[in-house]
């Protein structure tokens, strides 16, 4: 499903800021990869996002993005509920 990746290369390439630090606090917040930061920065540089509760093109762009995420989330939950059975007394 996923390509085989050398873990040490992945850590070196995606978490360069660790520089030999052992980070164990994944319950509080998981580390974000360098590529995630790069992709978010590219997106923020390319698009203008406004308050989704306001009017105007930047606000409409943000609202559309939020609605797309909501749609994807609902579809994931629908697929999961078809596979999972929860019994409540």
What does this protein look like?
The chain is mainly α. It is 54% helix and 0% strand. It has three helices and no strands. It has helices at 7-14, 34-46, 57-83. It is extended, with a radius of gyration of 19 Å. The relative contact order is 0.06. InterPro entries: PyrdxlP-dep_Trfase, PyrdxlP-dep_Trfase_major.
Question: What's the structural blueprint in terms of helices and strands?
Answer:
Elements: H1 7-14, H2 34-46, H3 57-83
InterPro entries: PyrdxlP-dep_Trfase, PyrdxlP-dep_Trfase_major
Question: What features would you highlight for this structure?
Answer:
about 90 residues, single chain, mainly alpha, extended
The total of beta strands comes to 0
The geometry reads as: extended
Query: How would you spell out the order of helices and strands?
Result: HHH
User: What do the pLDDT scores average to?
Assistant: 84
The poorly predicted ranges are none
What class do helices, strands and sheet pairing give? mainly alpha
State the major sheet. none
InterPro entries: PyrdxlP-dep_Trfase, PyrdxlP-dep_Trfase_major
Précis, in short:
The chain has 89 residues and is mostly helical. The chain has helices at 7-14, 34-46, 57-83.
